[in-house]
C-alpha cells in the first residue's frame, strides 16, 4: 500500500493548475472559498447578547477557566453562511452515487425521517420514567421481533450503538457462555477477508487471533480451517467470519464451517455488515450463526457516514440467548417491560453485564422499523436482489478494462477490482481514486480488503438507477483509457476541481494540527512597499 507522502499542493488554484482560472475572491462561481471562523470572526464581539450573572456559584473547583475562551463571535447571517457553505463541500448520497465498498451508502427514504420526528419518539429523554414511554418500548420490541424473524435467531441485544460495538457485544456473549460452561478457550479464528474490527475486537477481549487463509477464489479455505482447529483442539472460542465476505463473495461452504466450529465446542460469530446483500434471501440462523450484529444504519437505511449516527443490534442463537446484555425487553401478560438490573432477571437469564448506559438509539429504531414496514418482506428481498444486480452490472461493464482478482465469477452486493490494470501506466490506485473526485464521484474504498494488491471495492447498493450506473461505468472506462494512454497529468495532480487539492494524508495522520494559531503578520519588503 502506497500513501501520498509528497505533500502535494492542497489549496485550490495552486501553481501549475491549468484546469481552472484564478479569481480575486478565491470563489469559483457558487463554489465558495470558506475560511475558518477564527480567520474572519471577532474575538471581541458576539452575535448573542447575554446578561452578566455574577451570582452563580462556581462548582467545578480547579477547572475554572483561567483565560478567555478564545472563540470568535459571528453575527447570525455570518454563522448561517459559514455552515451552509461548509455543507456544500460535503459529498452525500443525496448528491450522487456513493460507491464506497463495504459501507452500503444507500438512499434514506424521507418517510423514515418523518416517522423519526413524531412526538413520543423524537422528544423522549433516556432519564424520563419508563412508565411514560410504553410506545417506545413496544416499537423496540416490534423491531427486535422482525430482526429475529429475518435472521431466524432466538434473541437480540438492541443496545449496541454500531457495528464494532455490536461485535464486542456478540463476542462478550460468547465469552460469557464459555465461562458459564466452565471453559476458558484462548483463541479466535479470523479469515483473511475479515473486517479489521474483527481481530481488534477479539484482541480487546484478551483472545489470541489466528488467521485462516483464503483460497484462490477469495473464500475461506476449508482444509486450512480443519487443520487449524485440529492444531488448537479444545482451545478455540469461536470464529469471526463475514458473509458475504469483504471480497463481495458469498461463502458457499458456510454451513460446513459452522458445523466444524460447533463440533469444536466453539461459537460462530458472523459480521453482519453485508447483510444488505441477503435480507429475505438467506437467514443467518439457518447457516449456523450464533451471533451477528446488524448495522441498522446500513441494511435498514438510516443516515450513515460522518461518524454516525448508527445502531448495531446483535441477534443471538438459542445457545447464546440467555447471555444477552442489560437492558433488554421482556414480554409479560401486561405487555412489555424493560429489564434494567440483574436483580430483575429470572431463571435462565444470565446477562453478561451492560454495554451502554441507556437502551440504544431511538431514532435509528424508528427509521429501521419504518423501512421494514414500508417495504414488506417482498420489498426487502427485492432490495437485496437489486443490490446484487447493480454490483454485477458494474462488474460486467468494467471487467474488460479493469482487473478482477478472482476471475469473472458473479459477485454479491459489491465488486472488487485490483490495480493490475494500471501496471506500467504510472498511475496508482490513489491517483485513480483522486481523479474520480474531479468527475464528481466520491472514490470507492481503496486498498481494502488487504487480500489483493491495490484493491478498489465498489458497492452501488440498490438505490441506483440504470442511468446512474451507466454514467458511472462510462466515467470509469474513460478514466481507465486515459491512464492507459499515458495521460498521467490527469491523475498525478488530481483532484484539480475540488475545494482542496490532494492532501498529505500521511502527514495529517502522524502530525495532526489540532489547534488554530494566528499566523504572524506578513513582512513587507522595501521592494513590495514601492
UniProtKB/TrEMBL annotation:
Gene3D superfamilies in UniProt = 6.20.440.10, Aspartate Aminotransferase, domain 1 (3.90.1150.10), Type I PLP-dependent aspartate aminotransferase-like (Major domain) (3.40.640.10)
Per the record, where are the segments of Low complexity compositional bias?
517-530
**EC number(s)?**
1.4.4.2
Going by the record, the broad EC class of this enzyme is oxidoreductase
Please report the stretch or stretches of sequence annotated as the Aminotransferase class V domain: 179-305
Keywords (alphabetical) are:
Oxidoreductase, Pyridoxal phosphate
GO terms of biological process kind:
glycine decarboxylation via glycine cleavage system
GO CC entries:
cytosol; glycine cleavage complex
Supply one GO molecular-function term.
glycine dehydrogenase (decarboxylating) activity
* Region Disordered, annotated ranges: 1-20, 508-530
| Record-linked InterPro entries | Aminotrans_V_dom, GDC-P_C, GDC_P, PyrdxlP-dep_Trfase, PyrdxlP-dep_Trfase_major, PyrdxlP-dep_Trfase_small
Q: Which reaction does it catalyse?
A: N(6)-[(R)-lipoyl]-L-lysyl-[glycine-cleavage complex H protein] + glycine + H(+) = N(6)-[(R)-S(8)-aminomethyldihydrolipoyl]-L-lysyl-[glycine-cleavage complex H protein] + CO2
Q: Which stretches make up the Glycine dehydrogenase C-terminal domain?
A: 383-481
Highest taxon above the source species: Bacteria
Which Pfam families has this protein been placed in?
Aminotran_5, GcvP2_C
Role: The glycine cleavage system catalyzes the degradation of glycine. The P protein binds the alpha-amino group of glycine through its pyridoxal phosphate cofactor; CO(2) is released and the remaining methylamine moiety is then transferred to the lipoamide cofactor of the H protein.
What's the name of the protein? glycine dehydrogenase (aminomethyl-transferring)
Amino acid at each position: 500500500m502506497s500513501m501520498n507522502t509528497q505533500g502535494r499542493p492542497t489549496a485550490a488554484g495552486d501553481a501549475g493548475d491549468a484546469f481552472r482560472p484564478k479569481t480575486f475572491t478565491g470563489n469559483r462561481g457558487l463554489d465558495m472559498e470558506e475560511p475558518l471562523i477564527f480567520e474572519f470572526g471577532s474575538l471581541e464581539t458576539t452575535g448573542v447578547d447575554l446578561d452578566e450573572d455574577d451570582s452563580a456559584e462556581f462548582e467545578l473547583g480547579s477547572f475554572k477557566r483561567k483565560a478567555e475562551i478564545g472563540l470568535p463571535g459571528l453575527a447570525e447571517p455570518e454563522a448561517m453562511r459559514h455552515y451552509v457553505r461548509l455543507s456544500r463541500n460535503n459529498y452525500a448520497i443525496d448528491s450522487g452515487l456513493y460507491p464506497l465498498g463495504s459501507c452500503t451508502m444507500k438512499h434514506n427514504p424521507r418517510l423514515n425521517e418523518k416517522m423519526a420526528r413524531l412526538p413520543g419518539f423524537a422528544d423522549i429523554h433516556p432519564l424520563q420514567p419508563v412508565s411514560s414511554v410504553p410506545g417506545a418500548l413496544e416499537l423496540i420490541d416490534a423491531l427486535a421481533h422482525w430482526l429475529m424473524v429475518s435472521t431466524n435467531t432466538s434473541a437480540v441485544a438492541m443496545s449496541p450503538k454500531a457495528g464494532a460495538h455490536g461485535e464486542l457485544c456478540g463476542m462478550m456473549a460468547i465469552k460469557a457462555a464459555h465461562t458459564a460452561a466452565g471453559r476458558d478457550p484462548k483463541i479466535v479464528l479470523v479469515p483473511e477477508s475479515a473486517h479489521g474490527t474483527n481481530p481488534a475486537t477479539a484482541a480487546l477481549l484478551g483472545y489470541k487471533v489466528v488467521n485462516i487463509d483464503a483460497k484462490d477464489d477469495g473464500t475461506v479455505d476449508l482444509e486450512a480451517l480443519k487443520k487449524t482447529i485440529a492444531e488448537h483442539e479444545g482451545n478455540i472460542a469461536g470464529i469471526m467470519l463475514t458473509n458475504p465476505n469483504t471480497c463481495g463473495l458469498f461463502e458457499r461452504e458456510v454451513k460446513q464451517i459452522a458445523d466444524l466450529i460447533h463440533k469444536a465446542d466453539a461459537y460462530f460469530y458472523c459480521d453482519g455488515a453485508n447483510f444488505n446483500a441477503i435480507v429475505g434471501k438467506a437467514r443467518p440462523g439457518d447457516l449456523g450463526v450464533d451471533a451477528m450484529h446488524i448495522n441498522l444504519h446500513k441494511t435498514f437505511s438510516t443516515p450513515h457516514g460522518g461518524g454516525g449516527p448508527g445502531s448495531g443490534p446483535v441477534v443471538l442463537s438459542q445457545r447464546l440467548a440467555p447471555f444477552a446484555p442489560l437492558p433488554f425487553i421482556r414480554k409479560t401478560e401486561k405487555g412489555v417491560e424493560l429489564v434494567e438490573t440483574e436483580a430483575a432477571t429470572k431463571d435462565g437469564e444470565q446477562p453478561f453485564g451492560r454495554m451502554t448506559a441507556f437502551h440504544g438509539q431511538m431514532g435509528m429504531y424508528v427509521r429501521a422499523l419504518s423501512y421494514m414496514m414500508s417495504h414488506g418482506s417482498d420489498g426487502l428481498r427485492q432490495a437485496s436482489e437489486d443490490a446484487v444486480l447493480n454490483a454485477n452490472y458494474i462488474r460486467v461493464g468494467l471487467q474488460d478494462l479493469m482487473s478482477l482478482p478472482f476471475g469473472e465469477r458473479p459477485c454479491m452486493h459489491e465488486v472488487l477490482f485490483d490495480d493490475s490494470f494500471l501496471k506500467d501506466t504510472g498511475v496508482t490506485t490513489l491517483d485513480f481514486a483522486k481523479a474520480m473526485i474531479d468527475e464528481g464521484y466520491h472514490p470507492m474504498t481503496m486498498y481494502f480488503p488487504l487480500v489483493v494488491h491495490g484493491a478498489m471495492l465498489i458497492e452501488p447498493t440498490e438505490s441506483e438507477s440504470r442511468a446512474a450506473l451507466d454514467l458511472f461505468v462510462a466515467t470509469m472506462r474513460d478514466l481507465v483509457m486515459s491512464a492507459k494512454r499515458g495521460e498521467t497529468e490527469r491523475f498525478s495532480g488530481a483532484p484539480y476541481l475540488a475545494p482542496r487539492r490532494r492532501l498529505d494524508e500521511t502527514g495529517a495522520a502522524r502530525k495532526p494540527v489540532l489547534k488554530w494559531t494566528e499566523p504572524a503578520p506578513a513582512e513587507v519588503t522595501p521592494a513590495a512597499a514601492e
